[in-house]
């Protein structure tokens, strides 16, 4: 195929993916009451499952009890006439993207499959299932762990008693949606490293050399969003460290396989 033919294929990939997102977004729009009350605004409630888990953990092991709360000390407000309507629309689109993610992956696979060997093309189903599962686990990790930890920290942070926290709806939604989607994409790290190692852009040695810096970044993130106790920080740190180590193993395997193929001509 020529360069223009590839661009045409890419254009139709984006068109089909956009249609899938819109369709899934329309479905999500019909369940907007459930999405907002039971999912998006749920971390604001002191009875949210994450807060109860950390509170029980704190009571059991005599740790920091900042999660034993009844309600976060801030209110959410909409300051524009169309604020709630536009929020509903864009939240539905975000939900549509999350729901349509497996289809988008399938479109992506069809786009890159001509560049793959025949033996690699047969792993399409494995690729779609594995990548989708990692993404959904990441979204759940972000929503049920990172989001409530961040809300608890930021909602209770004070520079002075003079300042009252009335959080804008867009600001709250931005944190919730960005955290969930970002964590979903971060959990794709092993898949991304697979393709980068396959084309020779990343090596296992590079990841090992920068492991200490990666761990420092992970620990800083965990320290920011968690209470000042080791247990909470470990709960956030361990999954991210595991992802990084799995990425190293995948990169090492792909580097070895690529060198073997180059040696065989």
From TrEMBL:
Key words, A-Z: Cell membrane, Membrane, Protein transport, Translocation, Transmembrane, Transmembrane helix, Transport
GO CC annotations on file: TAT protein transport complex
Pfam annotation, one family: TatC
Membrane topology: Multi-pass membrane protein
Localisation per UniProt entry: Cell membrane; Membrane
One BP term from GO: intracellular protein transmembrane transport
Cell membrane keyword on record: yes
Record keyword Transport present: yes
PANTHER family registered for this protein in UniProt: SEC-INDEPENDENT PROTEIN TRANSLOCASE PROTEIN TATC, SEC-INDEPENDENT PROTEIN TRANSLOCASE PROTEIN TATC, CHLOROPLASTIC-RELATED
Protein family membership: Belongs to the TatC family.
UniProt cross-references to HAMAP family, sorted A to Z: TatC
Assembly: Forms a complex with TatA.
Protein name from the UniProt record: Sec-independent protein translocase protein TatC
Organism: Flavobacterium cyanobacteriorum
Gene expressing this chain: tatC
């Amino acid at each position: 195929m020529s360069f223009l033919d590839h661009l045409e294929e890419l254009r139709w990939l984006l068109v089909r993916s956009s249609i899938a997102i819109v369709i899934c977004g329309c479905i999500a729009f019909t369940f907007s009451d459930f999405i907002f009350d039971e999912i998006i605004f749920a971390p604001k409630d002191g009875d949210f499952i994450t807060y109860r888990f950390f509170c029980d953990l704190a009571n059991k092991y005599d740790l920091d009890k900042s999660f034993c709360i009844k309600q976060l000390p801030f209110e959410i407000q909409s300051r524009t006439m169309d604020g709630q309507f536009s929020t509903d629309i864009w939240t539905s689109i975000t939900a549509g993207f999350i729901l349509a993610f497996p289809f988008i992956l399938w479109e992506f696979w069809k786009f890159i499959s001509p560049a793959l060997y025949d033996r690699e093309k047969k792993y399409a189903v494995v690729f779609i299932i594995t990548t989708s599962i990692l993404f959904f686990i990441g979204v759940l990790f972000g929503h049920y762990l990172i989001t409530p930890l961040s809300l608890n920290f930021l909602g209770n942070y004070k520079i002075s008693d003079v300042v009252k926290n009335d959080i804008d709806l867009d600001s709250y939604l931005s944190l919730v949606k960005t955290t969930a989607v970002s964590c979903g994409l971060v959990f794709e790290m092993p898949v991304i490293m697979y393709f980068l190692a396959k084309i020779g852009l990343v090596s296992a040695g590079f990841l090992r050399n920068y492991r200490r810096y990666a761990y420092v970044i992970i620990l800083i993130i965990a320290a920011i969003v968690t209470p000042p106790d080791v247990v909470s920080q470990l709960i956030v740190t361990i999954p991210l460290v595991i992802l990084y180590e799995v990425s190293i193993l995948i990169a090492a395997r792909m580097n070895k396989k690529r060198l073997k193929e180059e040696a065989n001509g």
